[in-house]
Amino acid sequence: MNNKDNKVSVLFMLFSILFCVCLIAANVLETKQIAFGSISLTGGLIVFPVSYIINDCVCEVWGYKKARLLIWTGFAMNFFFVSLGAICDAIPGAPYWTNDEGFHAVFGLAPRIAFASFLAFVCGSFVNAYIMSKMKLSSGGKNFSLRAVVSTIFGESVDSIIFFPLALWGVVPTEELPWLMLWQVILKTAYEIVVLPLTIRVVRYVKRHEQVDTYDNDVNYSIWRVFSI
């Protein structure tokens, strides 16, 4: 473990912390359906796209291997949080506690949402990272904006196709699900485009600060090689 490539920097650690916080927050916020006019959405839209932006930044700067570590770290922390919430929800409340219904509305639904979220997150995030990595190699490191948008479209599409039927079937009217999925992809991609100028500046700063710009030549893209960084 003396090789510099097998270490992580302070900036990578901070990206990882923010990534995990976004995933945990999204997991709770997804339990609420919100509406903007006639468009039905979930509350997770507020924060979840940030995780894809971080994924793009990490993959662009440090490469697929560290993005893989980031994704599995986020998965583990999210699973830990949801497990604690489910345990707390199962423990009987104190005699003076009057908010069981509200607490259960969030954490009682969490196991189903968590399973859908975990599966969708892993699939979508790895699709996002894989496309970012491959497009960077094929373009010689050019066109970051295009790579970020295209990878988000594919990643978010996979995420939505898996998450919404598993998490919200029977909760949301069936005829609303396709529109909910479509609007999630459109709005999350729009979110990425709107903040793209900031993302570009962050990526440039991190590359200069870290003095690294990784190209994934001869990388094993297996999602299971977690500690190969």
TrEMBL record:
**Pfam families noted in UniProt:** Vut_1
Report what the protein is called: Probable queuosine precursor transporter
By its UniProt entry, which InterPro entries does this protein fall under?
YhhQ
Where in or outside the cell it occurs: the entry states: Cell membrane
A GO term, aspect molecular function: transmembrane transporter activity
Q: What Gene Ontology cellular component terms go with this record?
A: plasma membrane
| Similarity comment: family membership | Belongs to the vitamin uptake transporter (VUT/ECF) (TC 2.A.88) family. Q precursor transporter subfamily.
Q: Which residues form a coiled coil?
A: none
Transmembrane residue ranges: 9-28, 34-54, 75-97, 109-132, 144-169, 181-200
Explain the purpose of this protein. Answer: Involved in the import of queuosine (Q) precursors, required for Q precursor salvage.
What kind of membrane protein is this, topologically?
Multi-pass membrane protein
Major localization listed first in the record, in broad terms: membrane
Key words of the record: Cell membrane, Membrane, Transmembrane, Transmembrane helix, Transport
